[in-house]
């Protein structure tokens, strides 16, 4: 996989970065993280321009996210229902709905980098649930800035070790997601205990 990605990036440069970032934001399963790492490594060796790699990935990711948002805006709840049955991702869509309902724009922000597998579904859900476009755009831009910068700069920093970094980042992403879930449960538990204690004190 790594050799194929390196060959594609070497041949087509920032166009591969842009295309992979765009379609991955529409839930197409492509190794965009690896593409960005590879492009960052090529930038470190001066075969590509760092700012062009970053800009291509960032703009394409924003375009992909906003395309998903607009599809949700047009299709509404019926489109979500159809999408869940057609793709077999009804559970992910339901999680996306809960995230947007409970966290709004902040949910969009975290879905772009912290819980990235939810990202494409959160985009569509945000449009379907009527999250204001300006709020979606602000939080989505902030999140994608972190996501694109993280992978491109990692590739740039580690260069020839990008294959090793790709494996570590994959493990790290899983760890971060697990920690995020654990932290969410911990916060919910603390708030519940505090609420219960407050209720007992009033009595």
Task: Write a structural description.
The protein is mainly α and 203 residues long. 85% of the residues lie in helices and 0% in strands. It has nine helices and no strands. The longest helix has 41 residues, at 162-202. The chain is globular. The mean pLDDT is 86.
Compact summary:
This protein is an all-alpha fold and 203 residues long.
**What amount of the residues lies in strands?**
under 5%
Helix count from the secondary structure assignment: 9
Helix content: over 70%
- Sheet/helix structural class: mainly alpha
Instruction: Describe the main β-sheet briefly.
Output: none
What is the chain-wise order of helices and strands? Answer: HHHHHHHHH
Distance between the termini: 63 Å
Number of strands: 0
Computed over alpha carbons, the radius of gyration is 19 Å
Low-confidence stretches: none
Question: Helices, strands, pairings?
Answer:
Blueprint lengths: L1 H11 L1 H11 L7 H13 L5 H38 L2 H14 L1 H9 L5 H10 L4 H26 L3 H41 L1
Helix pairs in contact: 1-3, 2-3, 2-4, 3-4, 3-8, 3-9, 4-5, 4-7, 4-8, 5-6, 5-7, 6-7, 6-8
Features:
203 residues; mainly alpha
């Amino acid at each position: 996989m790594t050799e194929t990605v390196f060959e594609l990036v070497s041949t087509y440069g920032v166009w591969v970065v842009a295309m992979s970032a765009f379609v991955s934001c529409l839930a197409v399963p492509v190794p965009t993280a690896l593409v960005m790492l590879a492009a960052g490594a090529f930038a470190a060796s001066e075969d590509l321009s760092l700012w062009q790699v970053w800009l291509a990935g960032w703009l394409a990711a924003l375009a992909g996210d906003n395309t998903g948002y607009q599809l949700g805006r047009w299709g509404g709840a019926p489109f979500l229902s159809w999408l869940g049955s057609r793709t077999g991702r009804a559970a992910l869509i339901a999680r996306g709905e809960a995230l947007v309902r409970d966290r709004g724009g902040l949910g969009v922000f975290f879905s772009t980098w912290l819980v990235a597998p939810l990202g494409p579904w959160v985009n569509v859900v945000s449009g379907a649930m009527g999250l204001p476009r300006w709020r979606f755009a602000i939080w989505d831009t902030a999140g994608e800035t972190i996501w694109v910068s993280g992978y491109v700069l990692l590739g740039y920093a580690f260069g020839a070790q990008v294959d090793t970094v790709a494996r570590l980042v994959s493990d790290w992403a899983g760890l971060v997601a697990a920690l995020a879930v654990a932290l969410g449960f911990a916060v919910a538990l603390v708030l519940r205990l505090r609420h219960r204690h407050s209720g007992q004190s009033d009595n």
